[in-house]
Design a protein that fits this description.
mainly beta, four-stranded antiparallel beta sheet, two-stranded antiparallel sheet, 8 strands, about 0% helix, globular
Length: about 110
């Protein structure tokens, strides 16, 4: 979605809170959560985030993760990371919303 400023080129439409309205905001509720290159714990870690809002692109099943304090889940969500230019994967155990996150499309 684009809006044309008077006499200028199209500019992206951005919500008042700075979020991209074409993406779904998700909340990583836990601390020290690994963001991975692929939906597996064997994949390189790209970043570590704590209690952070992210723009979700999509979700898919990947490696099953078991955390004794939280549970088990094999659904992972791709989030926009590093100034919107890279994608990282977070296991849905650490995102508010349950096993599969409502509003986030399948990949």
């Amino acid at each position: 979605m684009f809006a044309s400023p008077a006499g200028g080129s199209p500019a992206p439409v951005v919500a008042a809170d700075g979020c991209d309205p074409t993406l779904t905001d998700v909340c990583i509720w836990a601390t020290d959560v690994n963001l991975r290159q692929q939906p597996t714990t064997d994949s390189p870690r790209l970043a570590v985030r704590s209690q952070w809002w992210a723009d979700a692109l999509c979700q898919k099943q990947g490696q099953t993760v078991h955390d004794p304090a939280v549970g088990t889940n094999n659904w992972w969500t791709a989030v926009v990371e590093f100034s919107g230019s890279d994608v990282a994967w977070v296991n849905n155990l650490y995102i508010r919303g349950g096993e599969k996150i409502a509003g986030v499309p399948d990949c």
